[in-house]
Amino acid sequence: MKIGILGVGHIGKTLALALAKAGHEVSVANSRGPETIDTEVLATGADAVTAAQAIRDKDVVILSIPLHRIPETAPLFAGVPVETIVIDTSNYYPQRDNKIERIEAGQVESLWVEEQLGRPIVKAWNAIGSASFAEKGKPAGSPDRIAIPISANRESDREVTMKLVNDTGFDAFYTGSLSDSWRQQPGAPIYCTDLTLKEIEDVIDTTERERLPKRRDIAVAAITERVEDGKTNPGAVYGVRLSRILYM
C-alpha cells in the first residue's frame, strides 16, 4: 500500500520503519522539511518528502503529531479523496496541547479530530508507549503478543487498519466506533498497559469514562517528577508499570 506519515517522532519513526519493512511504499514528512529527517527513520526504505507529498495519492495517511497541531494540517486534506484512510495516533494532554474546551467538556478526542479535518478518521497506535512500540513487536501467532486497540466508523477503515497494526508486529483489537474510542484514551485500562487480546477483552468494559482525565493527569505528574526535563518518554518497564497501577 502507499502510505504517508506526517510526523517522525517516537511513534512516527517506528511506524515508518515497521511499515516499510513490511513491504509498504512509505513516505514520511515533518514540519521542517525532508532534509531534516534523520536517515535512521529511512533505514528500511521509507522516503523523506514534503507534507503535501506525503498526503498526495496515498491509500493511507497516518497523523503522528501532537493533537494541538491537528487543525493546522486540515488544509492539506482539501484535495484528498474521502476514501483515503486517515489514521490519527494522537492523544489529548492539556499540559502540552493547552486546554481544548470541547474536549474538557466531554467531547471524545477522536470526534474532535474528525471535526477539525472535516473527514472520517481512524484511531490507532495511540494506546501504546513509544518504547513498547519500538521494542515489543512479535510475529503473528505469538502467544504473548501485545494488542493495540483501534476504533473506526467505516468497515473498510477498520479492515485496513487492523492489517497494518498486524504488519507493525501487534494484534489489533477493535474497540468500536469513534464514539467509543474514549475507551482507549489516556487513563483507560487498555492505555499503555501492554495487554494481549484476551487481557483487553477482560478489562475493556471496566473503563470508567469520568475518571480518565484525573488518572491521566496523575500519570503526567509522576512522569514529570521522574524525568528531569519533563519531555523524555519513560522506558517501557516504568511506563507500563505506572500505567497498570493507575489505570487498571
Offer a concise description of the structure.
The protein has 248 residues and is an alpha/beta fold. The chain has helices spanning 10-21, 51-55, 70-73, 94-97, 101-104, 109-117, 130-135, 155-167, 197-203, 212-226, 236-247, and strands at residues 2-6, 25-29, 47-48, 60-63, 85-88, 122-124, 147-152, 171-176. Strands 3-2-1-4-5-6-7-8 form an 8-stranded mixed beta sheet.
How would the blueprint of this fold be written?
Layout: E1 2-6, H1 10-21, E2 25-29, E3 47-48, H2 51-55, E4 60-63, H3 70-73, E5 85-88, H4 94-97, H5 101-104, H6 109-117, E6 122-124, H7 130-135, E7 147-152, H8 155-167, E8 171-176, H9 197-203, H10 212-226, H11 236-247
Parallel strand pairs: 1-2, 1-4, 2-3, 4-5, 5-6, 7-8
Antiparallel strand pairs: 6-7
Helix pairs in contact: 10-11
